[in-house]
Amino acid sequence: MAGPNNPPFSAITKHFYAYFKKTNLFSMVLITLLCSLSYFFGIYQHTDRRVTTINSEINCSSPHPNITQVLKSPIGLDFHPHHPAEDEITTSPDVSTTYFPPCDIKYSEYTPCEDAERSLKFSRKRLIYRERHCPEKGELLKCRIPAPFGYKNPFQWPTSRDFAWYANVPHKHLTVEKAGQNWIRFEGDRFRFPGGGTMFPNGADAYIDDIGKLINLRDGSIRTAIDTGCGVASWGAYLLSRNILTVSFAPKDTHEAQVQFALERGVPALIGILASNRLPYPSRAFDMAHCSRCLIPWGQYDGQYLIEVDRILRPGGYWILSGPPINWKRHYKGWDRTQEDLNSEQSKIEAVAKSLCWKKFVEKNDIAIWQKPTNHIHCKINRKIIRNPPFCQAQDPDKAWYTKMDTCLTPLPDISNIKDIAGGKLANWPERLTAIPPRISSESIEGITEKMFKEDTELWKKRLAYYMKFNGELGQTGRYRNLLDMNAHLGGFAAAFVDYPLWVMNVVPTEAKINTLGVIYERGLIGTYHNWCEAMSTYPRTYDLLHADSVFTLYKDRCEMEDILLEMDRILRPEGSVIFRDDVDVLLKIKSITEGFQWNSQIVDHEDSPHNREKLLFAVKMYWTAPADQGEASLAS
Fold first, then answer.
1. Which residues cross the membrane (predicted)?
2. What is the C-alpha to C-alpha distance for residues 158 and 430, in angstroms, rounded to an integer?
């Protein structure tokens, strides 16, 4: 402190200046003094002291005040950014904040690439108009999609499996249309999902038990499944208790909001349809495929839809069919169809399955199951007799983004022994998660070695632990349920969460240098291909947490940063979280743009070193909804 015996710092400076101003030593002493002061200030700055939390907290008007400190800082961490550009957010001429206003309430459930009005411009043949048809650049919305008035955070899992708030998905028509099938019921301020379905009125659990009597669902050999025409995804919801992870999909059609209900329940689902394009998954991805009265014409179009199921089904995998035409002799009157029509439909399906070299595994009561061969040795011999469909020539079986379906059979990888499994045998779950995926051990993924895979697994354990220092609620059961990894690579981020009651949709961007989605599925995880210059095939407010690792570096000069961020805002729930990893200059631009979204955020250092240009940006989307009068008008319409 300054006093009679302790002159202020400015007086000391003047004293030294007067003493040395006529000597050549003045400059040297001044520099020495300044360096010493800088050194001691640096020591003080790095001492062990508690650091304050991020610059803003969640809106106190949130209906969930328990998450007001989602991003918290660790003890002993210098939370101040070490890159001076942090201060340039408000001073740099090329980094400015633009406010993005809310969209009209009519866009509350807007799905840009499955827009009903735009779809009418496309052919109704084979339901092509229900495929992805995205807006042109000039049609992109530059506003934020509002949540409906009264929106609440979904119930925590596993309660969410059985309940969803009416305010979040204000659609009652399914409760009427499917009243006799136990799909969904409206009770006061919420929906209840009894677990029923068209072909399982006694509940999905009992239906799955019936399947389990025919094939083994408990030994870990079946881990990944796909449900075509999923309804509200009760089949996938109840498989989770058996450690089977299901991708459920259905089109955005007359059963509006069925996929949205699935996501509100905390069940993996996407908007999708079997029409003319391949499904956005790699070959040999799923252990089991399922259709329960999904209304897909399996026997038509030269069997093209079953050929596509064959492509994504793993060697030895199962295809399960219930509903028309299975057990038609018992149900034909209730289905209001003739015996001849149903018999013809089943005969066509049987013929297509046989042409794919599938074996009819079992048919019992209302369930029929076929099994794909474990290799194609016999199938290639049979091609001399059954010529159709022929084997595909010179095509990439994993290419599946706006790729047209084939009328040829995707060949399995070659093997030398009739008892071998084409592509390699997978370990049962849970060992499958950390076992070396066959695509890597066979060196079919260029540039990825077994050592790199093991190191990546350990790296993401370390990174998750680091993330939890800043977002402590990552480790709290129930806070997050639906997660999205926007650039998943080998699925290490998802694998690190294996012991938590949540699921991760792993996206491999179509622009990624290496297609690793097949590896992700071989680990027993799920995912999809996507191009982030377009909107994702999902509803607004799908995900609780988004993880964007180097996404914006990957898409630099491909599309506008603000358009990707607006899409992230669309699919993120109110009070949802985002973790960005990228170059610090990229993060500064992201931070500036998202301030115009009413996000709170903070840049922190890389887990290895403050000198690493890659840093992290933790962000939280504020709670806000459409005004009450707009919400009432929307419900009235």
1. 25-44
2. 21
In the chain, where does the domain assigned CATH 3.40.50.150 lie?
152-385, 434-621
> For 310-362, what is each residue's pLDDT tens digit?
999 999 999 999 999 999 999 999 999 999 999 999 999 999 999 999 999 99
Q: What is the pTM of this model?
A: 0.86
Which residue, 211, 168, 207, 166, is CA-closest to 189? 166
In the 8-state DSSP scheme, what is residue 541?
A: T
Q: Let me know: does 206 contact 228? Beta carbons within 8 Å.
A: no
- Give pLDDT, residue 27: 54
> 3-state SS of 414-480?
CCCCCCCCCCCCCCCCCHHHCCCCHHHHCCCCCCCCHHHHHHHHHHHHHHHHHHHHHCHHHHCCCCC
Architecture of domain 434-621 in CATH?
3-Layer(aba) Sandwich (3.40)
Q: 201-211, pLDDT tens digit by residue?
A: 789 999 999 99
Distances (CA, A) of 126 to 132, 292, 301: 14, 20, 9
Question: Contact 548/282 with Cβ under 8 angstroms?
Answer: no
Give pLDDT, residue 634. 52
Residue 171 has pLDDT above 60, yes or no: yes
Architecture of the domain spanning 152-385: 3-Layer(aba) Sandwich (3.40)
